[in-house]
Every structure is written in C-alpha cells, then in structure tokens.
Amino acid sequence: MALRRALHFVFKVGDRTKTATFYRDVLGMKVLRHEEFEEGCKATCNGPYDGKWSKTMVGFGPEDDHFVAELTYNYGVGEYQLGNDFLGLTLQSSQAVSNAKRLGWPLTEVGEALYLTQAPGGYRFYLVDKEQPPKDPVQKVCLGVSDLQRSTHYWTTLLGMKVMEKNEEKKTVLMGFTDTQCKLELHDISGTVDHATAFGRIAFSCPREQLPDLEALMKKENQKILTPLVSLDTPGKATVEVVILADPDGHEICFVGDEAFKQLSMVDPKGNDLLDKAMAEDKSDEWFAKHNRQKAAA
Question: Where in the cell is it found (predicted)?
Fold first, then answer.
C-alpha cells in the first residue's frame, strides 16, 4: 500500500475570481495546470452537471509530491450549499497567515499558533502559524463521519491506510498511506453526514494494475462503486483510468492509475495564464446581470 498516495481534494467553486485570490494570494499556492471542458466529466469530476466547466489544480508544488486542490467551476452555477462532510484542510505556513492579515482576509485564532479561515464558498482552512516546511505544507484533510469504527475499518482494512493517531476525547482518527504524505482525519460528528451540493471528492493514486482488484474487492464487500473503471480524456494530455468509490458515509473517493496520472499532472508553465485568460473571457456574470437574472444556486 506504500505505492498508494494522496493526490488532491476536489472543491466546487461558484466564484472563480475570488477563489483564485484566496489560493494564490492568501495561501500562496501556485496554479499547476488549468483545463477547460465543453461537457461534463464521465466520472462526474465536476459534480452532476452536463455543461461547460473548468478544472484548476493549485498547490505548493508538483502533484508528484504535494497534496493539492482541484477547483472545479461549472459555468452558470454561482453557489453551492455546504454540508457537514468536509471539516477542513490544515496547512503549515506563517506566510499564509501574514498574507491573510495584510489582505484583510478574515482569520480567527482557534488555538496556539492556529488560525481558521475560509475559502470562498465557506470551505474551512486551518493555518498553522509556523514557517512553511521545505516539504509539502499541507498536513491533513478532515472529513466528518457518522460511525468512526465503521469508517476506520473501511479506510484501513479495505483501502489499506494505516492509523497514525487516535483521539478518543475528540473522536478523531488520523490515518495515511505513508508518514510523509498528507493525512486523512476522520471526525465522528455523532449524526448523519450531509453532503449538500458542495460535496467534494478526495483522490489517491495507485499502480494501474491495482484498479480492477480494488473494484472487485468493493463488489465482494458490497461497498458502493459510483463509477466502475473508466478512461478519462483530457484534450492534448494523457488519458487516465479511474474507479470512483463511496465510503459508508457517501464520501466520494477517486483512485487513479498512477503511471498515466504522472503524465497528466505534469506542471503546465502556462497554467496561471490560462486561468487568467479563462476568467477574463468568462462573461457569465455580466450576461446574468444584463438579463436581470441570477446564476443558479445548486
């Protein structure tokens, strides 16, 4: 299982411009690549939407050794309803804290050298006010679960993660594939997990040959498979194979074949310019204003 690695979390964004400001100027992440699509993704990467959408990968470094964010923007959808499924992403960067203060981005001190802030759309980010490490500053992603024991079994026994830490008092379990990667924290919320419409997806890679076995295991264990093994095309880039699963609380999990993903995820030096160009050419806000209409709220 050491060959499996944590890749990214998918966030649906309604305001691409404000979102770009948050990731680039507040957190200090770089645009790694930007892609535009004319129709919905076969594996519903952009959610249950059929129309035009874009994908922007942002992070502190290449996806080979950094956990990054995938920002999906559906043209014509202005906002999404937050649930209690995604509980926050924690990263270490005193630079991000000072950026937020300088730009007047709201920050709340919630612990010693720990600040809570929000990305546009209300997604929670915890900033550890310590010098950014030379390795990946992203430490963990926290997801809400309704039954910690059941979820821990799923993620460890079926998906192969190992438990790093348990906190009975806080009702959390921290796990990962290796010590050096971004961790997954499960937090028992003592109730039903509501994904609303802003629900995200966490992605991991594994050797391509493991994908059919993973799918077969989930079938055997009567677990949910949202998208059986399928090939996804990106114009002008590598075709990847994925299996999309759902854990017992319905958290979406993508496993992608690592070999092709390494080609697809190469940093595109033009990524930042492509995002800026797409935002400049996106006249959807003006169109809705001119026609006295509001963008859809999902």
Answer: Mitochondrion
